[in-house]
Design a protein that fits this description.
Strand 12, helix 15 and strand 13 (about 445-450) form a beta-alpha-beta unit. The N and C termini lie close together (about 10 Å). It contains 20 helices and 16 strands. The relative contact order is 0.13. The chain has about 575 residues and is an alpha/beta fold. The protein is about 35% helix and about 15% strand. Helix 5 runs parallel beside helix 6 (about 200-210) and helix 14 (about 385-400) runs parallel beside helix 15 (about 420-440). The strands form 3 sheets. Strands 1, 2, 3, 4, 5, 6, 7 and 8 form an 8-stranded mixed beta sheet that branches. The chain has a 6-stranded mixed beta sheet with strand order 9-10-11-12-13-15. The chain has a two-stranded parallel sheet with strand order 14-16. The chain folds into 2 domains: about 85-295, 2-enoyl-CoA Hydratase, Chain A, domain 1; about 315-415 and about 425-545, 2-enoyl-CoA Hydratase, Chain A, domain 1, CATH 3.90.226. The longest helix has 26 residues, at about 45-70. Bound molecules: coenzyme A. The site of coenzyme A has 14 residues, from strand 5.
């Protein structure tokens, strides 16, 4: 059992934004006329730009190929079994009925690809954030065409991450349950540990205590552990002859007692709506169940601002397509990061902070679709001055409650053999990077990290890597995630090592550092195309901001939570 200190709860479960007032929210943003960064690509760097474009186009091709692959779910025969024999809707059609539109933020769609135990499309479960009656909600939707919607280790990881996003951003959570429970051959990797299957139910309880609303729609089997997802949600809807909830199915009952029983009699919608009381709404068919679910969301106590007229933010001066040539193929292909910043922010306007100091980190304020943000962008190898500036800037944003956006492109730093002076410099750098990590870890403002190039070595932690709990972390397809960059294996090996070993390690670094390898393992919230980044940032900031419109938070925030 955790020791539940107020500080622990404060650090781990507090809302990520300190906007809790229910006062009228349509305050006017302060006027700004930040300086314009009018930065065309310099002709002298055209060759670097072209090399990056070529690399980006190969990465985007891979992105499209994988997107197409995951959209097919478990494959043609599983789709036929699902729709024709089981008469169920496909998971993406379900999302169409649940959400207001198809403009939703899908999280980690490539999770589950290329794992040691095979390719598990979408990890067998789609997660994301979409609008229901105007309200951003997390959805966790099993795809039963992937091995009956059973939970692989990566499925559990994906569900837990989605719940964490719901907690961190105080978003209502909707579960579309259609799962055969644990994928039995991998039970030892799903069942026993702290962050395994049971954590889903633990989180459901904690989320309820935090007044994070949860609704379940049973549109398939909820077997064994899966049975607790709807029973622990605050409100559940179940579909006649489609949904079942039981700990052990009819074959298990037959084996144990010899009794023959139909799934409907054992745990169908009528039984649970009229006898057990496990669900609250009985639906004759799926479409009706989605209507009920949308209506339940309307009963949540959120007060959204009036629909804003067409937003009138200035677009960046240069086309976002140019980001493809600025996305570095490798660290040595990085151009001045201001070129990227200027193509992401409103009107390319950027109020730079400490522009003459610590040049390898660019910091400053800008707006993204009207949201004021603090940007910290890698512009070379983080020097100790850059890290000190980073700490200062992070604390500044924290003090002003301004969300932070990190544009990460870190170098891999080989271990050095140091002279006395170098070691002093290196010691200063260590201390400065440590301070920056502390500042980020302790800042309670929302953070979004976009890896635009390298995510290497310990410097990546100082740029709000995954371990530093950013609200969202995205990768560009050209991103490289590994301790050492490919080609730098020699710095990991003892001097005079064999060339063959070095080549082998470099090949491995090449393969394992790819953005798709990372996303397959869920080390991020998804690979996004550079030209979509502005929109993804806007959605993420809108989503994060929504918590200020929830009217039913005050008591839960005051009450101590038992962890
Ligand atoms: N572990 C591993 N594989 C499983 C599984 C499980 N718990 N449940 C189903 N599968 C596999 C099936 O073997 C089948 O694999 P295949 O496509 O390679 O043949 C695939 O998932 C689909 O299952 P199938 O039974 O053909 O589909 P269905 O739509 O008729 O039924 C279920 C799906 C989930 C309702 C049904 O398979 C079932 O009841 N499974 C057992 C659930 C259970 O007892 N879970 C206990 C977990 S602790």
């Amino acid at each position: 059992m955790h020791r539940c200190t107020a500080r622990f709860v404060e650090q781990h479960w507090r809302p990520s934004v300190r906007w809790t007032s229910s006062a009228p929210v349509r305050r006017k943003a302060l006027r700004s006329s930040f300086p314009v960064l009018d930065l065309p690509v310099p002709p002298s760097h055209r060759h670097v730009y072209q090399a990056n474009v070529q690399n980006s186009s190969a990465c985007c091709h891979k992105f499209s190929e994988l997107s197409e692959r995951v959209r097919k779910g478990g494959g043609d025969s599983a789709v036929t079994r699902h729709t024709q024999r089981n008469k169920k809707l496909l998971v993406r059609d379900r999302l169409r009925l649940l959400l207001d539109d198809e403009d939703y933020l899908e999280l980690s769609p490539f999770a589950g690809l290329g794992l040691p135990y095979g390719d598990i499309p979408s990890a067998g479960c789609l997660t994301g954030v979409g609008r229901i009656n105007g309200l951003w909600c997390v959805f966790i939707a099993n795809d039963a065409t992937v091995k009956g919607g059973t939970a692989y280790p990566i499925t559990v990881k994906k569900q837990l991450r989605a719940q964490q996003i719901a907690v961190q951003n105080r978003l209502p959570c909707v579960y579309l349950v259609d799962s055969g429970g644990a994928f039995l051959p991998l039970q030892s990797e799903i069942f026993p540990d702290r962050m395994h299957g049971g954590r889903t139910f633990y989180n459901e309880a904690i989320m309820s205590a935090m007044k994070i609303p949860q609704v379940a729609l049973v549109c398939g089997s909820c077997t064994a552990g899966g049975a607790y997802v709807p029973t622990m949600a605050e409100e559940a809807v179940m579909v006649h002859r489609i949904g079942t909830i039981f700990l052990g199915g009819p074959p298990l009952v037959k084996a144990a007692t010899g009794e023959e029983v139909t799934p409907e009699d054992l745990g169908g919608a009528k039984l649970h709506a009229e006898v057990s009381g496990c669900v609250d709404h009985f639906a004759w068919e799926e479409t009706e169940a989605f209507l009920y679910t949308r209506n339940i969301i309307s009963t949540l106590n959120f007060h959204l601002p009036e629909e804003e007229e067409e937003r009138k933010e200035e677009e960046p001066l240069q086309s976002s397509e140019e980001l493809l040539g600025l996305a570095p193929k490798s660290f040595s292909h990085s151009l001045d990061v201001r070129l990227i910043v200027s193509r992401l922010v409103d009107g390319s306007r950027f109020q730079e902070f400490k522009s003459g100091y610590g040049a390898t980190l660019v910091t400053g304020f800008a707006k993204v679709h009207g949201h004021l943000v603090g940007i910290a962008a890698s512009n070379g190898e983080l020097s100790s001055e850059a890290a000190l500036k980073g700490s200062h800037f992070v604390q500044l944003c924290d003090q002003r409650d301004v969300p932070l956006v990190f544009l990460q492109n870190t170098a891999s730093t080989p271990p050095l053999t140091l002279s006395a002076t170098q070691s002093e410099v290196s010691g200063n750098r260590l201390k400065a990077l440590g301070s920056m990590m502390s500042a980020i870890a302790c800042a309670s403002v929302p953070k979004i990290t976009v890896v635009i190039g390298g995510c290497h070595g310990v410097d990546s932690y100082s740029m709000c890597g995954r371990a530093f709990d950013p609200n969202f972390l995205y990768l560009w397809p050209n991103a490289r995630v590994s301790l050492m960059a490919p080609g730098e294996a020699s710095s990991l090996l003892p001097p005079g090592g064999e060339q063959e070993q070095e080549e082998k390690l470099n090949r491995r670094l090449e393969e394992e550092s790819s953005a798709f390898f990372s996303s397959g393992r869920l080390w991020d919230d998804g690979v996004i195309l550079p030209q979509d980044t502005r929109k993804v940032l806007r959605d993420s900031l809108d989503i994060i901001k929504q918590q200020q419109y929830q009217l039913s938070t005050s008591k839960s925030q005051a009450a101590p939570l038992r962890m």
